[in-house]
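Anyone up for a design puzzle?
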C-alpha cells in the first residue's frame, strides 16, 4: 500500500485513489519566459518518476502539467525582444521539451497552456461571482477570501495572522489584503481578451483550477509542485476550486523541497540559477537525474559541483555494473523468476511505497550492484540486470548513453589533439576530432580553451 505525506493534513496517509486502479494527477509546470533551471527540473523529474512508479504499481495515470504562457514576466520579456508573448512562450515551451526529453522526462498526458483556456477561465470566474466568492472593482475581479471558510488550511496559516502585516497596494482596490486577483483589467500594450468585466487577462492562480477541472474533473487524486507554491499559489487554487465546486478538490497534496546554492534558494530573482541545459552539458542527464532523485523529494538539497560529482560517480557505479553484466552475459537471457528476484522486488516496493523513499531505493540498488560486481554467476547476473531494467521503468536512466566513465578517456584524446595542434600537426588534430565525432563527441575550440560535449 502506497503512503504519501499529504501537505494538507501534515501526515503520511495511505493512498486510496477516487477510482480503483486510476490516478489523476496535476503538477504545476513552468512559466515559459526563459530556459528552465535546476530548481524547476526537480518537480519535473521527481513527479515524472513518481508517476512512473504509480504505473509500475499497476495504476493507470492521467498526468497533467501546465505551461503558464501569460503573465507579467512573459510580457516584460516579450516586450524587451519586441516579439509577441505567444512567440516567446512557444520558444520556451520547445526549449522545455528539449531539456525534458534529454532528462528522460516522459511527456504528460496533457500539457495545457493558459491562453487556450481563457473561455473556461471566464466561465469559472463568473461562477465564483454568482456564488458570492468574487467581486468586481475597477476592471479587476478579486476572490473574496473572507467568504471561503477554510482559507489557510493547506499552508497551515490563520487568515487573521496573515492579515496583520499585509497591506493593500495603492493601485489595488480590493476589500481585504488577502483577496487575490482572478481577472486583471487590460493595461496598454498587454495582450488581452474580452470578458464580462471588459478587456483583460487571467490572474495566475485561476489557470490551474480551471485547467485541472477541465481535464481531470472537479475532484482528483494528487496535486503536486514545489513547496514554494504552497502559499499563496496552491492555497488560492484550492480556495477557488472548492468555492466553485462546493466539494473537496484534491485528496493528496505532494510538495518537493527546494534546491539551494550556498544555502540560498535557487531562483531567478536571487540570481543563483544553474540552467538545466548547462548542467546537462557539464554533468550529463543520468548524473542530473541521479542528483534529483537521490535525496528524498521533500528534503531540501544543495546544488554544488561536489554534489554533482558525487551523483555522477554514484550513477557510474550502476552503469559499471550494467557494463560488466552486458560484457559477461551478452544480450538477452531467459530468466526464471525465483525467490532472489521476488525478495529484491519486495524490498524495492517497500521502500518506494513509503512516501516514495528514493534514498532507500538507491541504497538497495547499490547493494545489488555490489552483488553484481562480486559474482561471476551468470544466472545471478542476468537476474540482477533484469531487476535493474525493471526498476529503470521509474528511475528513468538512459543506460544506452555512453557511460560517464568514458569521459576520462575523451579528456585524454582532447588533450592529445591539443598537443598535436600546439606542434602544428593539424592532420593528426583533425583526425582525432573526426574520430571523436564518429563516437558522438563534439569539440569546440575558442581562443583559450577547447570544450567538448556528447552529441
Ligand atoms: Zn499551479
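Challenge accepted. My sequence:
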Amino acid at each position: 500500500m502506497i503512503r504519501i505525506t499529504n501537505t494538507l493534513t501534515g501526515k503520511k496517509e495511505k493512498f486510496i485513489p477516487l477510482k480503483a486502479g486510476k490516478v489523476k494527477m496535476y503538477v504545476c509546470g513552468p512559466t515559459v519566459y526563459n530556459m528552465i533551471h535546476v530548481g524547476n527540473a526537480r518537480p519535473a523529474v521527481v513527479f515524472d518518476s513518481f508517476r512512473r512508479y504509480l504505473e509500475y504499481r499497476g495504476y493507470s495515470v492521467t498526468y497533467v502539467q501546465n505551461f503558464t504562457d501569460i503573465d507579467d514576466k512573459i510580457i516584460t520579456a516579450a516586450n524587451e525582444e519586441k516579439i509577441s508573448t505567444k512567440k516567446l512562450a512557444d520558444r520556451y515551451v520547445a526549449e522545455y521539451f528539449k531539456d525534458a526529453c534529454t532528462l528522460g522526462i516522459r511527456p504528460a498526458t496533457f500539457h495545457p497552456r493558459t491562453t487556450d483556456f481563457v473561455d473556461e477561465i471566464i466561465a469559472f470566474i463568473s461562477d465564483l461571482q454568482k456564488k458570492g466568492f468574487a467581486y468586481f472593482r475597477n476592471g479587476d475581479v478579486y476572490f473574496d477570501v473572507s467568504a471561503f471558510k477554510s482559507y489557510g488550511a493547506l499552508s497551515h496559516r490563520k487568515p487573521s495572522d496573515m492579515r496583520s502585516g499585509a497591506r493593500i497596494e495603492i493601485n489595488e482596490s480590493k476589500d481585504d489584503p488577502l483577496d487575490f486577483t482572478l481577472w486583471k483589467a487590460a493595461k496598454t500594450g498587454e495582450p488581452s481578451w474580452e470578458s464580462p468585466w471588459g478587456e483583460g487577462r487571467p490572474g495566475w492562480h485561476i489557470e490551474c483550477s480551471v485547467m485541472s477541472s477541465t481535464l481531470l474533473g472537479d475532484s482528483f487524486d494528487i496535486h503536486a509542485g514545489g513547496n514554494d507554491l504552497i502559499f499563496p499559489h496552491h492555497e488560492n487554487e484550492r480556495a477557488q476550486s472548492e468555492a466553485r465546486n462546493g466539494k473537496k478538490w484534491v485528496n493528496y497534496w505532494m510538495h518537493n523541497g527546494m534546491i539551494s546554492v550556498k544555502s540560498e534558494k535557487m531562483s531567478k530573482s536571487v540570481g543563483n540559477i544553474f540552467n538545466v541545459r548547462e548542467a546537462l552539458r557539464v554533468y550529463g542527464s543520468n548524473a542530473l537525474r541521479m542528483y534529483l532523485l537521490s535525496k528524498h523529494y521533500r528534503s531540501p538539497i544543495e546544488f554544488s559541483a561536489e554534489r554533482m560529482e558525487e551523483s555522477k560517480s554514484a550513477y557510474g557505479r550502476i552503469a559499471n555494473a550494467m557494463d560488466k553484466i552486458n560484457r559477461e552475459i551478452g544480450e538477452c537471457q531467459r530468466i526464471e523468476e525465483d525467490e532472489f528476484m521476488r525478495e529484491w522486488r519486495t524490498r524495492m516496493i517497500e521502500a518506494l511505497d513509503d512516501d516514495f523513499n528514493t534514498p532507500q531505493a538507491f541504497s538497495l540498488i547499490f547493494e545489488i550492484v555490489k552483488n553484481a560486481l562480486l559474482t561471476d554467476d551468470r544466472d545471478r547476473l542476468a537476474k540482477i540486470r533484469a531487476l535493474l531494467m525493471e526498476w529503470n521503468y521509474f528511475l528513468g536512466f538512459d543506460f544506452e548513453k555512453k557511460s560517464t566513465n568514458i569521459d576520462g578517456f575523451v579528456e585524454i584524446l582532447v588533450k592529445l589533439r591539443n598537443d598535436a595542434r600546439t606542434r602544428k600537426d593539424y592532420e593528426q588534430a583533425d583526425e582525432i576530432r573526426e574520430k571523436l565525432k564518429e563516437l558522438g563527441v563534439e569539440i569546440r575550440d575558442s581562443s583559450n580553451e577547447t570544450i567538448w560535449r556528447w552529441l
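A detail worth pointing out: The mean pLDDT is 93.
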